[in-house]
Specification:
- This protein has 280 residues and is of the alpha+beta class.
- It contains 8 helices and 12 strands.
- The protein folds into 2 domains: 31-163, no CATH class; 168-280, 3-Layer(aba) Sandwich (Dna Topoisomerase Vi A Subunit, Chain: A, domain 2).
- Helices cover 31% and strands 21% of the residues.
- It has a 4-stranded antiparallel beta sheet with strand order 6-7-8-9, sandwiched between helices. A 3-stranded antiparallel beta sheet has the order 3-4-5, covered by helices on one side.
- A hairpin with a 4-residue loop joins strand 3 (66-72) and strand 4.
Length: 280
């Protein structure tokens, strides 16, 4: 895989003021109904972000990340990275993030990735464009006797309809900061890929699921980025679902750009980031 990564941007600085959203959606819910849902989601998100993380047996710790070094005798050098507690290894596909900045990973773990003791899995906090929690996704949740989806979201009754009028795509506030600084922007699918991109300070617009039909607002948003001279690189997963999402995106924009991830490879953007930094 070739190196398309832009230089890093510090995400830990205070969040900038947000303009009105590009999204053309008006909620049918009253402002009071929306406010009540968001208040409950905010409180639940804080519980996950401040949860005790199971380490070994009954031992728990507050969520933290730290710098670590691992020797690679076969390659004659050491890896330096950011270590994670075991409940987050599947989300980041590693126990040590190589090439990531400590302050940025701490930002991600304090603001975006928490832990649900009920589902025994990471809880990904999703905010809208004006910094309100509008959804929570549980990544690979566990429940005895039940087969749950890879991503389990809050039910429609517990969140604003379509996540409200200020939502466009996950982590938009942080990603727009990265987009403003770089000419290359990746587009793909999956919250996992978006979280990993953010940890590595890479601009990545996630459509979340391969079933997304690329509605007009997100295509308009991407079109405006291209008009501003941004270089769009598609990075859809190298599987059947990813290929279908790639085809849908090509149809929506009327072009067929080459996809970064090879088809039928089984790889995704997280694999790309991991391979890139391990071989750097």
């Amino acid at each position: 895989m070739s190196n398309h990564l832009p230089p890093p941007v510090d995400l830990t600085q205070p969040l900038p003021a947000r303009p009105e959203p590009d999204r053309h959606y008006t909620s049918k819910e009253s402002a009071e109904e929306i406010a009540k849902k968001i208040e409950k989601l905010e409180a639940e998100a804080q519980r996950y972000l401040n949860a005790d993380i199971p380490i070994i047996g009954n031992i728990t710790m507050k969520n933290e990340v730290w710098e670590c070094t691992v020797a690679r005798e076969d390659k004659g050098y050491e890896y330096r990275g950011i270590c994670l507690y075991s409940p987050f290894h599947k989300l980041f596909e590693t126990d040590m993030l190589i090439g990531a900045k400590l302050s940025v990973v701490r930002y991600v773990m304090k603001r975006i990735v928490g832990y649900s003791s009920y589902f025994q899995c990471p809880a990904i906090i999703i905010r809208d464009g004006i910094n309100r929690v509008v959804d929570i996704a549980y990544y690979r949740p566990q429940s005895e006797g039940k087969k749950l989806p890879k991503y389990l979201y809050k039910s429609n009754e517990k969140k604003p309809i379509k996540r409200g009028e200020h939502f466009l795509y996950p982590f938009q506030i942080e990603m727009e900061r990265l987009i403003a600084k770089h000419e290359i922007i990746f587009i793909g699918e999956g919250l996992k890929n978006a979280v990993n991109a953010l940890a590595h300070q890479v601009p990545y617009i996630s459509i979340e699921g391969a079933a997304n039909n690329f509605n007009a607002p997100i295509i308009e948003y991407i079109t405006k980025l291209r008009q501003r001279g941004k270089d769009i690189i598609t990075a859809f997963d190298g599987d059947e679902a990813g290929f279908k999402a790639y085809e849908a995106f090509c149809k929506a924009i009327g072009e067929a750009p080459a996809n970064l991830i090879e088809p039928d490879s089984g790889d995704d953007f997280t694999d790309y980031l991991k391979e890139l930094h391990q071989n750097f």
